[in-house]
Write a structure and sequence with these properties.
Layout: E1 7-8, H1 27-38, E2 41-46, E3 49-54, H2 57-65, E4 71-72, H3 73-81, H4 97-100, H5 103-122, H6 132-148, H7 159-169, H8 173-176, H9 181-186, H10 190-208, H11 217-223, H12 232-265, H13 267-275, H14 283-295, E5 299-304, E6 308-311, E7 316-319, E8 324-328, H15 330-333, E9 348-349, E10 352-353, H16 377-394
Parallel strand pairs: 3-8
Antiparallel strand pairs: 1-7, 2-3, 4-5, 5-8, 6-7, 9-10
Helix pairs in contact: 5-6, 5-16, 6-12, 7-10, 10-12, 12-14, 12-16, 14-16
Length: 420
């Protein structure tokens, strides 16, 4: 085993492991227990990695303030995802989510969003029983693929096969089911590579069948590869679409699922959403923000690339390259102040948390913080609010469940549901 990177002075070291290294029954409870025992700054040594966890207000400020070139969230995220995704999917990409999701871009997707929602709602009839997270997952596939694979993909006879391949490929499983990553590694990612090949074949046929430009995002992706010969161009376009879809949709469908769950559980708020006037005009968006806040299971990681000093308000730690800075949103979003464990969309004023007052901005996160905010936030909030308005504007939903909980082993992203 290689020597672990140094942290000076060394904070308390918790008797805990990360779930991708050994089974952890309840990840939130395990890391919460480490915090209760060791304080707001502590180390977890797991596998061949050393993690410096930060939870104090000053520690959280320091976590988000470290420049990306010194401690990279991008590198840490890629390391996490590559436990599941084939490495070749990341190589040679020519378009990224950060390029696509500025506020001016959202309007370009609205037509595709409305068509995807219409198709999903057309499959519902009074009296149907649906599983909300399966519904939101299938709708997420339609929303995303209509936006960046061309709307014609929705009419493809292979659309179902494509979404099955994307589900098999889903990199989010690295943090939703982290204990399964040992099995993935032992197989050499065989199932994932087979799914990648299937998705590439289907998308390639769809793109090649396009007879003329349509001025949409798919045209932009294709244009990025105009200087490449076949089959490099065909593979490159397909992989850009796949990685964009996986990066953008895996958490959107889960956040949408919880938004629907919470509205079904809170009929008075739902009635206000349906009325949608006055101060409640943006209530559907605030419901999406609140559900995303509550459902966050994200572990925020930053891979230390250069020596860095981190001040947690009590002392300054000198952290060597190779270590990872970390914080865990379930232990800040829900317990940072009284009342944060309760569902209350009225705590939001537009996109900002207004209640409880006086919280530092780093204490509660729905879509990330500062330069590490999710670039798809405007797209996601627009999509979720439109689904809420149109679904509940057409149907009443009667709950057939008594409670909804997250999988106890999940350690990243927005929670999935442990039970149907």
């Amino acid at each position: 085993m290689s020597e672990l990177p140094t942290i000076e002075p060394l904070p308390p070291v918790a008797d805990c492991a990360m779930p991708w290294d050994r089974p952890v029954g309840d990840t939130v409870a395990a890391i919460g227990g480490a915090r209760a025992e060791c304080g707001d700054t502590f180390v977890i040594d797991s596998g061949e990695d050393r993690y410096l966890f930060l939870f104090s207000p000053a520690g959280l400020r320091a976590f988000y303030a470290v420049p990306e070139k010194q401690a990279s969230k991008g590198v840490a995220d890629a390391k996490m995802l590559m436990r599941k995704l084939p490495e070749e999917l990341f190589q040679g990409r020519r378009i990224t989510p950060h390029e696509l999701f500025d506020r001016s871009s959202v309007s370009a997707y609205l037509g595709a969003l409305e068509e995807a929602i219409s198709r999903q709602l057309a499959g519902l009839n009074p009296g149907d029983e649906i599983e909300l997270f399966d519904f939101s997952r299938r709708l997420g596939h339609r929303l995303g693929l209509a936006s960046w694979a061309g709307r014609e993909i929705l009419d493809s006879d292979e659309f179902g096969e494509l979404t099955d391949a994307l589900d098999a490929l889903d990199g989010a499983e690295a943090f939703v089911a982290p204990t399964r990553m040992r099995e993935v590694a032992l197989s050499g990612k065989a199932a994932e590579r087979e799914a990648l090949a299937r998705a590439e074949r289907i998308l390639s046929r769809s793109v090649q069948g396009r007879r003329s430009p349509r001025g949409d995002l798919l045209d932009e992706i294709v244009s990025r590869w105009d200087d490449a010969a076949e089959p490099e161009k065909r593979v490159g376009v397909s992989r850009d679409i796949i990685l964009l879809h996986l990066a953008s949709m895996s958490n959107l469908f889960a956040a949408l699922g919880w938004t629907l769950v919470h509205l079904v559980q809170h009929p008075r708020i739902l009635e206000r959403v349906r009325a949608g006037d006055g101060a409640d005009r943006d209530l559907a968006t605030r419901c999406a923000l609140e559900s995303t806040r509550i459902a966050q299971r994200s572990i925020m990681l930053r891979a230390v690339l250069e020596p860095v000093a981190v001040d947690d308000g009590s002392r300054t730690y000198r952290v060597a390259p190779g270590a990872t800075l970390a914080t865990f949103l379930p232990l800040t979003n829900l317990v940072g102040a009284p009342g944060l464990d309760a569902y209350d969309p009225d705590r939001w004023r537009g996109p900002r948390l207004a209640s409880p007052s006086g919280l530092p901005p780093e204490a509660v996160t729905s879509f990330g913080h500062g330069p590490h905010s999710c670039p798809a936030r405007p797209f996601a909030l627009t999509a979720m609010s439109r689904v809420v308005e149109r679904l509940f504007g057409t149907f009443d939903l009667e709950p057939r469940f008594t409670q909804a909980t997250a999988p106890p082993e999940q350690i990243g992203g927005v929670a999935r549901s442990a039970e149907p």
